[in-house]
Amino acid sequence: MLAMCGLSAMAQKGRDGIGGNIAYNLYNDSGFGLGVKYQYNITDNVRIEPSFTYYPVNTIPSRWGHEKGCYSWLLNANLHFLIGKPNRWRSYVIGGLAYGNMKGKEEYDVNNKMLGINAGLGFDYRISYALSLQLEPKIILQKEITLAPTIGLTYYFK
Fold it and tell me: What would the pLDDT profile of 108-130 be if each residue is shown by its tens digit?
């Protein structure tokens, strides 16, 4: 009974946490990125997640012809719609906005700012009351469609 009470408290309204992500942008020759995120449960089944992901040098698409010396970043504002009752595994639907920039200098300046939409699914595995492992295969609809799966760890404060 105590375990059931602990598990049901994991998705309570007002619960918040911070975490980190490792992302992989599957668009052409893109690559790995590192991110930070904040999560806040508006209700028991809806949470907000602003996040920032940085893709270091040489991780933007080769079709731009500016791979060397370029980097990119992505700022997300997502809503997670949690499905089902809280337990160790819980899935959620992702919807939100993305704003990104590819920047660098080679033969000439590269500075491409893009606004887009995020959509996808997420899977949340509660390691403990305070820790959660999350996997998010999602697409980013900007100038073109990008598949950008992430895996992250979140620490919850209460």
Answer: 455 677 899 999 999 999 999 89
Q: What is the pTM of this model?
A: 0.80
Residue from 133, 55, 53, 48 nearest 96 by CA? 48
Domains in the chain, number: 1
26 part of a folded domain: yes
For residue 42, the domain's CATH number is: 2.40.160.20
With vertex at residue 103, the alpha carbon angle to CA 101 and CA 108, rounded to the nearest 5 degrees, is 140
Q: How far is CA 32 from CA 2, 89, 111, in A?
A: 40, 26, 20
> Has residue 50 been placed in a domain?
yes
pLDDT at 24 over 60: yes
**β-bridge mates for residue 134, sequence order:** 124, 152
Q: How far apart are CA 152 and CA 146, in angstroms?
A: 19
> What is the residue range of 28's domain?
17-54+76-115+123-156
